[in-house]
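Duplicate of #3305? Posting structure anyway:
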């Protein structure tokens, strides 16, 4: 049971973390992905038998945990909801694969050669299928996509899901046609040397969508995603073309001289985008503090990743698991406040930004009485109610702070560009 915190002269227990209702769109998406996964699993069992299917699925699965963890590590300031991450993986594994297979089959029926399908139609159809998911997030859940980093994360997760299913199909084909030796060769090529290929291709589309989100120009909002998709198709076509026409030597030359450097460049862009998010978070929260929406003493515990971890460790020591969950939700609320404020001052906010901001402020206020933060070192230690870990009532900072982020009225329409 969590230890209560002191607020003034009264005990305050951590509130139940605020949870949102599951939307109809989420339910429908999960049902579609679930049925599609069952269909693919059934086809695998029919094609190669249960043993072959299990072996190929396990081999395909071992290639991607590191990439998934890298996405989660990059997406730490404002993590995407778990249901969106799962939906991205599922979309790539089921819907995008289905779109690619159908369009490539139609190209084959129209008389296209296998080489043409591999170099032209496969990149066009597969990057279309993968790129649709982050595009739908932008169109249907605009508030979940904040910039380049979010675009990269969604695109990479979709690419991982797609590569997983495609690897299973290739492994099963290699096992049936070439036996264990053929399976091992294909696993080394796809699972060891190039599991990043599809995530890398689709990340170009994600970057384009992220640029569109951050821009106020209608031209950029249209051109950037299209250009990102074109780059994704060209990368995919180059990869397939080097394998189709270049032979083993041509493929590895392209792999070493082009795609490994591009992978490094993608990581650099993602890390840079995360640093920019951290700077924006600090700046936006400082402006929110000037308007009385957040306590200045709390900004460091939200805007810096290392301080976030320190604050959660302190909350666990003082208040237990429930206090950590409350603090995590509170940090998330202030992060959403900062991102929304930044969109307002940059001119890219949604039409209902006032209501969204007020909802965020209410959520923060509900959580705030149970928030336990490390004490301000400038405040003398206090041996009173609550023990050595507490601060004197009214001293500010730490677990005893009684400040509430709710202003006296809802946010007003923005005036000058730099203020609400």
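Output from current build:
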């Amino acid at each position: 049971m969590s230890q209560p915190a002191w607020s003034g002269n009264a005990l305050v227990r951590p509130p139940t973390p605020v949870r949102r209702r599951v939307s109809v769109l989420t339910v429908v998406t999960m049902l579609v992905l679930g049925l599609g996964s069952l269909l693919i699993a059934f086809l695998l069992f029919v094609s190669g038998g249960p043993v072959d299917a299990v072996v190929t699925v396990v081999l395909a699965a071992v290639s991607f945990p590191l990439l998934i963890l890298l996405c989660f590590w990059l997406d730490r300031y404002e993590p995407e909801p778990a249901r969106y991450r799962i939906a991205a993986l599922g979309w790539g594994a089921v819907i995008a694969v289905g779109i690619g297979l159908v369009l490539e089959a139609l190209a084959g029926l129209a008389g296209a050669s296998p080489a043409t399908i591999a170099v032209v139609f496969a990149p066009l159809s597969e990057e279309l299928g993968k790129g649709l998911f982050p595009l739908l997030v932008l169109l249907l859940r605009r508030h979940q996509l904040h910039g380049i980093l979010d675009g990269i994360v969604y695109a990479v997760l979709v690419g991982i899901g797609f590569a997983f299913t495609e690897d299973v199909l290739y492994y099963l084909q290699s096992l049936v046609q070439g036996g264990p030796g053929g399976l091992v060769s294909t696993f080394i090529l796809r699972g060891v040397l190039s599991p990043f290929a599809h995530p890398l291709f689709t990340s170009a589309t994600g970057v384009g969508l992220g640029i569109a989100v951050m821009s106020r120009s209608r031209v950029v909002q249209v051109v950037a995603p299209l250009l990102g998709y074109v780059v994704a198709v060209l990368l995919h076509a180059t990869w397939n073309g080097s394998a189709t026409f270049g032979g083993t030597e041509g493929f590895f030359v392209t792999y070493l001289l082009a795609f490994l450097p591009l992978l490094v460049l993608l990581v650099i862009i993602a890390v840079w985008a995360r640093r920019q998010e951290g700077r924006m978070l600090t700046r936006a929260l400082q402006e929110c503090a000037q308007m009385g929406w957040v306590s200045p003493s709390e900004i460091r515990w939200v805007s810096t990743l290392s301080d976030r971890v320190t604050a959660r460790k302190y909350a666990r020591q003082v208040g237990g698991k429930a206090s950590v969950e409350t603090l995590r939700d509170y940090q998330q609320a202030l992060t959403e406040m900062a991102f929304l404020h930044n969109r307002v001052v940059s001119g890219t906010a949604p039409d209902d930004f006032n209501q969204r901001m007020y909802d965020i402020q209410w959520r923060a206020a509900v959580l705030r009485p149970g928030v336990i933060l490390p004490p301000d070192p400038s405040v003398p230690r206090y041996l009173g109610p609550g023990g050595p870990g507490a601060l004197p009532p009214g001293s500010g900072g730490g677990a005893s702070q009684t400040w509430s982020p709710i202003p006296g009225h809802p946010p007003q329409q923005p005036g000058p560009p730099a203020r609400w």
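Confirmed duplicate; merging threads. Residues 1-14, 379-420 have pLDDT under 50 and may be disordered. DSSP finds twelve helices and two strands in the chain.
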